[in-house]
């Protein structure tokens, strides 16, 4: 089993740190307007990476967090994986130039896989994280909602992921939308399925992580990392404890 990376996460809407329950913009919990000090605290606890999301842009397009991203990269030393509203090659360039280590591409990765495959070829698999956020339908099919998880694009996870494997995908972020922000534990069956479908891709678990046991179980399921959201913001999970688990042998 390879290395495992934790991504403490900040989702921003209107300049505030928030969490959405199951991706629903009407079910928002606010946690303050202090993203830079929070990022600095992640670094002080020993994190090497963080995950930063522009929720306004995820719905409307036009990434707005470049100034904050630049401050985080400069002041904390964290490597930042970030996205929201990435619609063009120029968006990718602008976010990388602002200090991102990886750009997360979500809705466009579902709508226009040819374009995103071209970005993987141009910028390299280490600079692009494809986010295939998913929801299982009544038939057991993993569907791929887009536009801030508010629209069904008609694609499926099992059909699209192999397209990106052939294009050189290195990093996949996959959120089980029904578990996002719900503190119900990560969907380990989903991540085992992804590892079988794309064994050479580093899969990041997202959605539902509650405690150190969930971090450990994501590792054992073959994930290369996990995104820590609500549990971290609400003090249910110690980042220091989670980081200790990150380096323990399985």
Give me the side-by-side strand order of the main sheet.
1-4-5-6-7-11-12-13
The CATH homologous superfamily corresponds to: Aldolase class I
Radius of gyration: 16 Å
User: Total strand count, please?
Assistant: 13
- What global shape is seen? globular
Biggest sheet descriptor? 8 strands, parallel, barrel
What is the CA-CA span between the terminal residues? 8 Å
Q: State the domain count.
A: 1
Mean pLDDT: 93
What is the percentage of strand-forming residues? 25-35%
* Tally of alpha and pi helices: 11
Give, in order, the helices and strands.
EEEHEHHEHEHHEEEEHEHEHEHH
Q: Kindly identify the CATH topology.
A: TIM Barrel
What level of helicity do the residues show? Answer: 25-40%
Would you tell me the structural class of the helices and strands?
alpha/beta
CATH architect. name: Alpha-Beta Barrel
What is the class in the CATH system? Alpha Beta
Regions with little confidence, pLDDT below 50 for 5+ residues: none
């Amino acid at each position: 089993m390879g290395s495992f990376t934790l991504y403490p996460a900040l989702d921003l809407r209107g300049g505030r740190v928030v969490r959405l329950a199951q991706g629903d913009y009407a079910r928002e919990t606010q946690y303050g307007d202090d993203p830079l000090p929070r990022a600095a605290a992640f670094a002080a606890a020993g994190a090497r990476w963080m995950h930063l999301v522009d929720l306004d842009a995820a719905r409307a397009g036009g990434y707005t967090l470049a100034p904050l991203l630049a401050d985080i990269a400069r002041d904390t030393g964290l490597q930042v994986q970030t996205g929201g509203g990435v619609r063009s090659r120029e968006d990718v360039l602008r976010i990388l130039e602002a200090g991102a280590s990886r750009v997360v591409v979500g809705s466009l990765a579902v709508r226009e896989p040819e374009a995103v495959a071209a970005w993987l070829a141009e910028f390299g698999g280490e600079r692009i994280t494809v986010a295939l956020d998913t929801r299982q339908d009544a038939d057991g099919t993993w569907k791929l909602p887009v536009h801030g998880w508010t629209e069904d694009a008609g694609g499926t996870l099992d059909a699209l992921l192999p397209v990106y494997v052939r294009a050189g995908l290195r990093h996949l972020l996959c959120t089980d939308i029904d578990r996002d922000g719900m503190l119900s534990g990560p969907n380990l069956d989903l991540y085992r399925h992804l590892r079988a479908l794309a064994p050479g891709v580093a899969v990041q678990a997202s959605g539902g992580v509650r405690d150190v046991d969930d971090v450990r179980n994501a590792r054992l399921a073959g994930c290369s990392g996990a995104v820590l959201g609500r549990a971290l913001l609400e003090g249910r999970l110690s980042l220091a404890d989670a980081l200790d688990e990150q380096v323990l042998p399985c």
